Amino acid sequence: MFGIQALFDALRYQAFVDFGYLMLLVYFIAMSGVTLYALVQVHLLFLYKKYHKEHPVIEYKKYDPNDPNLPFVTVQLPMYNEMYVAERIIDCVAAQEYPKDKFEIHVLDDSTDETVQIVARKVAELRARGYNIEHIHRTNRQGYKAGALQEAMPRARGEFIAIFDADFTPRPDFLRTTIPYFEDPKVGIVQTRWEHLNADYSMLTKLQALQLNVHFTVEQAGRSYGNLLLQFNGTAGVWRKKVIEEAGGWQSDTLTEDLDLSFRAQILGYRIQYLEKLGSPAELPVDMNALKGQQFRWNKGGAQNARKLIKLVWNAKTLTPLQKVHAISQLLAYGVFLWVFIAAISSIPLSFAFSELGISTHFLSFSVIGLFAVAAISYTANVTAALNRQTPPSFWEKVRFFGLFLSFLPMSMGLSLYNAIAVIEGLRGKVSAFVRTPKYGITSDRTPIRQAAYMARKISWVTYAEGVMALVFLSAALAGIRTGNSAFVLFHFMLAFGFATICYYSIKHLRFD
Fold first, then answer.
1. Which listed residue (109, 110, 165, 260) is catalytic?
2. Rounded CA separation 252/258 (Å)
3. I need a surface site. Which of 42, 156, 294, 397 has the fewest CB within 10 A?
4. pLDDT 10s digits, 119-157
5. Which SS3 state, helix, strand or coil, does residue 276 take?
6. Residue in 109, 165, 167, 258 annotated catalytic
7. How far apart are CA 340 and CA 412, in angstroms?
8. Is 113 a residue of the active site?
9. What is the DSSP string of 27-83?
10. The pTM is what?
11. Whether 285 contacts 294, CB under 8 Å
12. Three-state SS for 238?
């Protein structure tokens, strides 16, 4: 009897050790994915800094608005239920420093609420003032945004097509600054940098601005300056109409039709001209559920495009090996949240197995590379970006950045479950509706949201799961302290805080009628 019990104990111990090694392998693979993503970002940071060192001043040419030879432009405004911002974007486009007879405005309205009447009144008002503007209202919403853009193509008379989402407020010189770059026949797209109307509205918007600034400085500009593939960001940019047609048009088989079409256009040999200094202000989501919906669409769409485009990129004869590597890395980058979530889950059993495996916790130090890389890139994008300052950052600017960055890390971890689900669905090819991000016309005002018609009304099952994850990681952190297995204690506390925060605000930002 004693021998049988000893055998069972030995087998149980061996199973524990084997499981520990398995979790070590899973964690190592996941963190290697995160680290490789960070190293690609470091290369973009190098390209960004190198260019700005060689070009300390960037000046853009502009067309004279009185030039009689200006090309004709179509401005498309796709929207769906945007009652709070529809008039604003139409007024901003009408205020362009461009001759009235040289551009037309097409409002591509798929709305099902009072947005339809709001747009109709504004269109009638501008028509009476001599503007060439058309209200194109669909009732089927087939293909969502991509479908609206594709259906409107035959009605566009412009050689160039500018596109704005409803929450943007383009500057009056937008058209006369972007259109000159199409004098180069290889330029198929001109993309501008997103700015933020309400970055200081709340901690949530501050953290979004911090993340987006990385994309629109180090990532987009770094790729542009390194002659790598960029992406059209779906708005605040201009297309050469014939490029859209040659590249196969707008397709609705992914949730990020902008990334899809821009890659297909660049594979044909066309180039995206990125104007880092020309900002296009827009509104950031002010409630957690809207942000999560936006993140889900971006991550699922990115994974769908990875599935669709990687083979096309790899076989493209127009691309160099470096362009291919970076393009594929960009398509796979949306999986970083999946890697983070896998690393988080595997770290719980691993934290209690290190002592039995006989492996030093110093093994984990390689994962710090990614942390320092992300910190350096975020610091450059938000503090020392060459485009917006000539003086060194002050001490308090640095303190403010690091305070935000230390909040950004756990919040990003807290979004890892939701975004990991999005990536898995995208890789599996699961079809889902295009859910637009609701906006409320909020700029820098810090008053509460009063216009809440588009806020979510019920708690998602993922929100419940995020609450459970917060409790699981808090328990793991406390257990690690109690047992002396401290390797992951800080990591688990950050995860607990991140998941708890996401869960709390997801419930707080519901509309309870």
1. 110
2. 10
3. 397
4. 999 999 999 999 999 999 999 999 999 999 999 999 999
5. strand
6. 258
7. 9
8. no
9. HHHHHHHHHHHHHHHHHHHHHHHHHHHH-S--------TT-TTPPPEEEEEEESS-T
10. 0.93
11. yes
12. strand
